[in-house]
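Q: What would this chain look like folded?
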Amino acid sequence: MTMDVRAVLEFATVTRCLSLFLQAVLNAAIPDHDADAFRPPRTEEPLYLDSTVEWLLGGLSHWDAEHFLFIAERGYLYEHNFAFFPLFPVVLRGLAETLLWPISSWLSVRGRLLVAVALGNSALFLLSVVALHALSRIVLQDKRLALLSSLLYCITPANVFMTAGYSESLFAALTFGGLFLLEKGFTLRACLALSIATAARSNGLVNIGFLLYVPSLHAISQIRVYRTTTKGHSKVFYYIWVIIRLLLTSLLGTAIIAIPFCAFQYYGYRTFCTPSVSLERIPPPLLSLAERKGYRVPDENGPPPLWCMRPLPLLYSHIQDVYWDVGFLRYFELRQIPNFILALPMANLGIMAAYAYFQANPELCLRLGLWETSANKGLDKPTPGMFNPRVFVYVVHSTVLLVFGTLCMHVQVLTRFMASSSPVPFWISAHLLLLNEPLLHRRTTSNPNVQLQTHSRNGCDHKPQNPIIALLPHFTTCSPTTQSILGYFLSYWLLGLALHCNFLPWT
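A: My prediction, written as structure tokens:
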């Protein structure tokens, strides 16, 4: 383990522990808002430690987390539960039935699931930050930028969703890990990781774009090298082989990544369009909730829902349309202006990344980043930093998420949507800090009271100082860029814990 990875892991561990502590304190200090959210009745008798666990970790179970916990405990009962993909509930139930089984005499399934959320998401967040650091090192080719990006990720504005019972930490770990494997050339392993990510969140399908692009980049690079080192007709056969291999890899990889989504939609179709469950088998409290709230449940004696008659009966699309009113420009209403303001900082980072990258590499962007004209600039040796050619596909991916999230989703979700799916918000933030913060440019400043040391030496060993921690005591003397970025990250980090954990509206 390198010193940089150790520094990132230590900071991530501190932020996880602090998040769990603060959500317990804030949840106890602030009364819960009476929100119109999914709150299924408890049908299991509480055991000895349930009240203690609920007091300590109850803030992790609010809003959409209730869906994940309900699915982990009861399975997919209500139609709108199918908006939440199965991998995270499976992980929670697996932890509750294995690692936490010895305490089943003191904790009910619900209590063990809450503990599983705290332990599981903390571990998954640590995996995601290691994966992000590894991905940043190989793509950015800049050790300092990779370290600062990973440290910023530890105080992500989407922090509460990485901590609570949401699938963001799981999805980020699988996505960043899969992209790292893809960059290293382990295409099959990358496909498997990205496929598993699709079982956690539907936007894992967008990662198919990486699978189509990165192998194409490698294929073009191989053809260029072979063209300059080989003569004769054998080149033609090599080109044909590279193209065939690229097509097979793309088709197979696309199928592998899409399989979890297709299988889950088929399971939803079978559950509601050809049901084998009668209402008598559903616990009365849960059935009463369905009748009171208008939730659809599978009933073999009832008529199938109308969406089953569509040419392409996708349950996920039906749920987003009917239950969440998600669609093109549907959120563009005056009463949603506060939510657009909440999403504005993350949207601004995405816009700045795309604009700055295009300004730095206009010709590369017009060529879709697939090749360079200069013989001195090979794709295998990109210019280090935010604007090297390997970053192109990540900026495109981030921009696609930004446009889709703004136009077709509940816009306040944009913060966690992008923070758990793309490294670009953290790369551009770290780039701006290194570019505009004088305190990061030198070890000793002109002010004798403000000294930042990049390393502390002890013999031959050296440990990188955490620049985030080093900047905080001097926040008022930092540049406006630093104050804006750190202010945004830290305020959302803390406000999310205070509001979300008390059923108050948040991103």
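The mean pLDDT is 90.
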